[in-house]
Amino acid sequence: MELAKNLQKTLNQKANPKTDLYVDLAESVTGIILVGFLWMHMLFVGTIYINNGVLFNSLSEGLDKYYLAQIGIPATVLVILIHIFMAGRRAPMRLRDLRIAWRLTKSLKHTDTWIWVGQVITALIIGIMASMHLWEIMTTWPIEATKSAHRVALDGIAFMGGFSIKYYLWFYVALLLAGEYHAGFGLYRIFVKWGWFERHKMGYVLKGITLIILFIGFGALYMFIRLAEMVPLGGALH
Amino acid sequence: MSRNITLSIFRYNPNIPGDTPRMQDYKLEEYSGMTLFVALNEIREKQDPTLMFDFVCRAAICGSCAMLINGRPGLACKTLTKNLPSRFTLMPLPVFKLIGDLSVDTGTWFRNLQVRTESWIHTNKKFDPNALEVRMSNETAEAIYEPERCIECGCCVATCITANIREDFIGATGINRVSRFLIDPRDERTDREYFEVVGNEDGAFGCVGLMACDDYCPMEVPLQKQLALVRRKMAAAGLKLDLKGMKIS
Amino acid sequence: MSAKHTHITDVVVVGAGLAAERSAIEAASAGLNVIILSLVPPRRSHSTAAQGGMQASLGNAAMAKGDNPQIHFEDTVKGSDWGCDQEVAKMFTETVPIMIRQLDYWGVPWNRVVAGKKKLPSGLEVEDTKDKEGLITARDFGGVAKWRCCYTSDGTGHTVQFVVDTVVCKMGITVHDRMEAISLIHDGETCLGVVARCLRTGDLNVYLAKSTVIATGGAGRLYAASTNAVINEGTGGAIALNTGLVPLGNMEAVQFHPTGMPPVWILMTEGARGDGGYLLDKNLHRFMPDYEPKKKELASRDVVSRRMIQHIRAGYGVESKYAPQHLWLDIRHLGRKWVWTNLREIATIAMNFNGLDPAKDLVPVLPTQHYTMGGIRTNKHGFAYGLKGLFAIGEAACWDLHGFNRLGGNSLAETVTAGYLVGIQLAKYTLGATQKFDYKLVEGFVKKEEERIKNLISGKNGKENVWEIRAAAQNAMMDHVHIFRTGKSLQEGVAKLQELYKRSLKIGLRSSGQGANPELAQALRMPGMIRTSLCIAYGALMRTESRGSHFREDFPKRDDVNWLKRTLAYWKEGADLPTLDYEPVACPYMPPGDRGYGEATAPAKGK
Ligand SMILES: Cc1cc2nc3c(=O)[nH]c(=O)nc-3n(C[C@H](O)[C@H](O)[C@H](O)COP(=O)(O)OP(=O)(O)OC[C@H]3O[C@@H](n4cnc5c(N)ncnc54)[C@H](O)[C@@H]3O)c2cc1C
Ligand code: HEM
Ligand code: SF4
Ligand code: SF4
Ligand code: FES
């Protein structure tokens, strides 16, 4: 047994002993980049507050004009892919592991462990919804306040016939919550793992930031709805 | 004041042919100051002499008696029954090999860990019986004592999802143990040598940061601090060093 | 059944505590093959529970200035009430500073001297000088002239055991944990090894060795209330006694520690008083200075324990939910920071078990069985009397460093020092010895154990309940063989124990005894435990004087004319009482005199 295991290990020798280090660093670094991206993204979206979306539109134009979008979007996609690859390997994959993890989590009733389970679940949610979101944005390029507003507030009606369920609104609410949860606690755990802050104090700071971002996000959604009611699709702002 | 309590205890002795895992209930009358040490011994002496469990110091200093108490890991000897509901479960720690009922083989697991992580002072100096001890600041001595306080109870290992699903992961206690040598000026190991031992997925980089270990360590060893310390040191060492031809564990 | 495995090696060490592992290191360093057996993984041995520290005359701390092995020697002899072997005490006190430094070299994080002026809780001002900064420091302990107790916070036993075990790991010494030695194999002259029962599977194993070392620790659990771990049942001494050839020395010398915490009887280290703690009575009066004006709370343990009981008898005991009668330990004035760093272990214990925070609460204490001065009698090189190839060290042995009272901190120090010194002799002996193989003989010993097991399971000899007998025996020791002893009460105790001994031979299991059955394990130990208890009780009955911790109310004086001797207790086959023999105690360096504390010096005042 022991011999076979050692033989396995020898045969399995990684070309570079630093692989595990790089993988770990990559997980944290992509995590931080994505958190940065998400928060920037929310701040951008938040500009909808200002001037009824004029700034929002000019930012979007800027992204286009200086090819920031053309580079930024594929780069982000790449980072996300790396992140999924690096971080995903930590999640229980085999059925047996899932069962063990789930049983232990239920038994422990331990907050941080539950949070992690939440993170794995939100990761799945984000993985699916963010690709849909990206697809939607790419196929309706460029980004414009009114377009976004109508997508949020009105498209649902179009899809659903007579029902006034705001399909995209709920989509965004879900993505926002999942994204914020995942990013907020992800960042918390990076700090915990690298020991930059005392664990319990840091928890409060991050929860604070997450609340602010959520506030911005929901506010933005609200602004979109108002905008959609005020301005017809393709109509001018002001 | 006294109440009746029911202990629902995991029973299974792999050494008895035909025995199967099950939960068995035992009723007891609780009295003031009753610990699980008292309760379990009373069950063994008055109700069921086959019940297996481990106690040594019964003072929360030897690490023998860790088990899942109502689902959470803890030292049975220092757990007062009055802090538990009137019905609760006792299960053996996961990860470790079951010896029988609540008794698990932490000894072998920890022995392997010590050998794997080479947890002893590495030095080329020879001991000179005529010389004074090498001076050290009291602060350093106290810093070494912090991680050294681990009693190898296994609570941190049993709660760690990573350790539960990855057999080779050395757990918080293992990383903590290495940290103790890392900060000890008497250990002459180079960064490279430490990197060989813990600079990998089975060591520092395997930890996901769930901190169940930190929250459930009965000795309150500052595990977050020690885990992070090793991770930082190993990352810095790894990025700096030329590790060509290094032994891979 | 028959033995599942037979292991052949040069040295088998029974026990994995500090004494055991330290001797194993020495034997392995000489190139010998060593196997260590233990009830529990080495790092769970009771040595890890020692809190206070280890005595060695390094003389680094301010209050240690001028200390040397000679002063340590004198303190030890006085502490022992002239009962110890002075040659052993000499060797010991001269070697122990080297041991401390070697432990430091191996990695023990000893607390160090911090230079600067300090005000002690007693009000005394001292200064630690710059030239000593960074060297190993020491704290005060009972019965000493100088501060010499080296420590790591209050986890000294823990750190020392862990570090010694790292060396065992490094050297690759084989350890078989959960393996209980249940009898010695011998041919009447030489010890050939042990029969052991595996506590994982219940199988019997045979270990054959040129040398067998017994380092099984104390026997506190012969008493119902003890500070000892629950595995300290004195089984090592019992299996030696069972040979009928090896005597136990001075078993009546049992130490009661002044500060066990009721109702769980966990130890509050002497370091608490060493660091300046007080003992208070029901009026919150600090009473020790009334009895012991010089040493106050820090007279030797036997004296403080007796003074406490005396004070309680005088009507000053506290009645509370913790115990019907007890006293208080007060360390509040040391300050929160001191309590929760230097006395953290005991602060945690008080918190865990009684919900008390010693930084602001008083802690209930009462003298509690703590240490077994007696044990397998050996010569000064650790060779057991009666059988060749058998050695004993540590608390299980009567090397006789402690005589009739052990000084706090001298026992951890003994474990490593004896482990080292005896280890050298043991290695020398083993290298010159040849292995004896006598399979018939070995088979006979295994058969005997198998018979016992079979009979216990079938109930052939009777149906006595092992737990009831154990409880009764432990209570008999509490009632009759405690701090204050009288001929009449001891006589009753001996009679009770004899009765229980007969019953213990008729134990029958209630369970099936399959696998590593805990009831069977206890039943196998029971007769040996009561035999050992009888050695204590009967030895105490016959010793008609008071010396150290052995205090006879009907013979309150030390009697150097008749009793400057050591008790040797043998157990002859079929007997129901030990056979006592005596040997003289030589005093080559320090003739019997006044201890400077205790009843002889400061007659009881009581208030
Ligand atoms: C609470 C407490 C605090 C103390 N504090 C101090 C202190 O501050 N300073 C000091 O100097 N002393 C102190 N002492 C005393 C000191 O700790 C012990 O005397 C010493 O540690 C004994 O060491 P040992 O190696 O002889 O035995 P132990 O450490 O008790 O080891 C005994 C070993 O034998 C094994 N064993 C037993 N029976 C068998 C068997 N039948 N088969 C196989 N293995 C067996 C056990 O598993 C164990 O490994 C304290 C004692 C107690 C109880
Ligand atoms: C906006 C997008 C995202 C952000 C901001 C983000 C951020 C983070 C952060 C900061 C962490 C912690 C990393 C660490 O512990 O080192 C993390 C962990 C994780 N992420 Fe993401 N992530 C995002 C998208 C995704 C996606 C799309 C997936 C997969 C489908 C995913 C899967 C995971 C998993 C499984 C973990 C847990 C890994 C672990 O516990 O080590 N994430 N994420
Ligand atoms: S922090 Fe690391 S070691 Fe601790 S429980 Fe989590 S994964 Fe395990
Ligand atoms: S680190 Fe804490 S929980 Fe883990 S083994 Fe050590 S004492 Fe137990
Ligand atoms: S019995 Fe020692 S920690 Fe519980």
Give a structural overview.
The complex is a heterotrimer of chains A (238), B (249) and C (607). By secondary structure, chain A is mostly helical. Chain A has a single domain, classed as Fumarate reductase/succinate dehydrogenase, transmembrane subunit (3 helical TM bundles of succinate and fumarate reductases, Up-down Bundle). Helices cover 79% and strands 0% of the residues of chain A. Chain A is built from ten helices and no strands. In chain A, α2 packs across α9, α6 packs across α9 and α9 runs antiparallel to α10 (199-230). Chain B has two domains: 4-104, Beta-grasp domain (Ubiquitin-like (UB roll), Roll), CATH 3.10.20.30; 118-240, Fumarate Reductase Iron-sulfur Protein, Chain B, domain 2, CATH 1.10.1060. The longest helix of chain C has 25 residues, at 518-542. Chain C has helices at 18-29, 69-79, 86-106, 156-171, 235-241, 271-274, 288-291, 301-316, 336-342, 344-354, 410-432, 439-458, 466-480, 487-504, 518-542, 560-563, and strands spanning 5-14, 34-38, 54-55, 116-119, 125-128, 149-150, 174-177, 179-186, 191-198, 204-214, 248-249, 254-261, 266-267, 278-280, 327-330, 363-372, 375-377, 390-392, 397-398, 484-485, 551-552, 565-570, 579-584. The interface between A and B is large, with 36 and 41 residues. FE2/S2 (inorganic) cluster (FES) binds next to loops of chain B.
Shape of chain C: globular
Quaternary structure annotation: heterotrimer
| Protein chain pair with the most extensive contact, residues per chain | B-C, 66 and 69 residues
Distance between the termini of chain C: 66 Å
Rg over alpha carbons of chain C: 23 Å
Task: Count every beta strand of chain C, where a strand is a DSSP E run of 2 or more residues.
Answer: 23
Spatial separation of the terminal alpha carbons of chain B? 57 Å
Number of distinct beta strands of chain B: 7
% residues in beta strands of chain C: 15-25%
Strand order of the largest sheet of chain B: 2-1-5-3-4
Q: How is the main sheet of chain C built?
A: 7 strands, mixed
The CATH architecture of the largest domain in chain B would be Orthogonal Bundle
Low-confidence stretches of chain B: none
InterPro entries (chain B): 2Fe-2S_ferredoxin-like_sf, 2Fe2S_fd_BS, 4Fe4S_Fe-S-bd, Beta-grasp_dom_sf, Helical_ferredxn, SDH/FRD_Iron-Sulfur, Succ_DH/fum_Rdtase_Fe-S, Succ_DH/fum_Rdtase_N
Keywords (chain B): 2Fe-2S, 4Fe-4S, Iron, Iron-sulfur, Metal-binding, Oxidoreductase
Protein name (chain B): Succinate dehydrogenase/fumarate reductase, Fe-S protein subunit
EC number (chain B): 1.3.5.1
